Amino acid sequence: MKLGADKIKIATSLQEAVDAADIIFTCLGDDMAVSCTIITALEGGDVKGKIFVDCSTVHPTTTKELTERINARGAEFVAMPGMAMS
Q1: In what order do the strands lie in the sheet containing 23-26?
Q2: How many angstroms separate the CA atoms of 79 and 11, rounded?
């Protein structure tokens, strides 16, 4: 399957990407990066009906706090952390 030029959109800001998406995936290095990114996305516009999927490995408290913030704005949150390799 190939994507045509009419199917690709380059976002120049976080808000532009969130506005154009129905599902937003994040995979960042630590709790602070995830929290800052998602809070910024929530503050920037209407996210009602969107789904945030975080693939980062973060503390359960961070996941709980983000779930509450996202749900309060009418969006949904899925935590899908990777497994740490030792």
Answers
A1: 23-26, 51-54, 76-79
A2: 24
Under the banding of pLDDT at 50, 70 and 90, the label for residue 44 is confident
81: closest CA among 53, 60, 56, 52? 56
Q: What is the pTM of this model?
A: 0.85
Which residues on neighbouring strands pair with residue 76, listed in sequence order? 51
Supply the pLDDT for residue 63.
Answer: 94
Question: Which one of 2.60.120.560, 2.40.260.10, 3.40.50.620, 3.40.50.720 gives the CATH number of domain 21-79?
Answer: 3.40.50.720
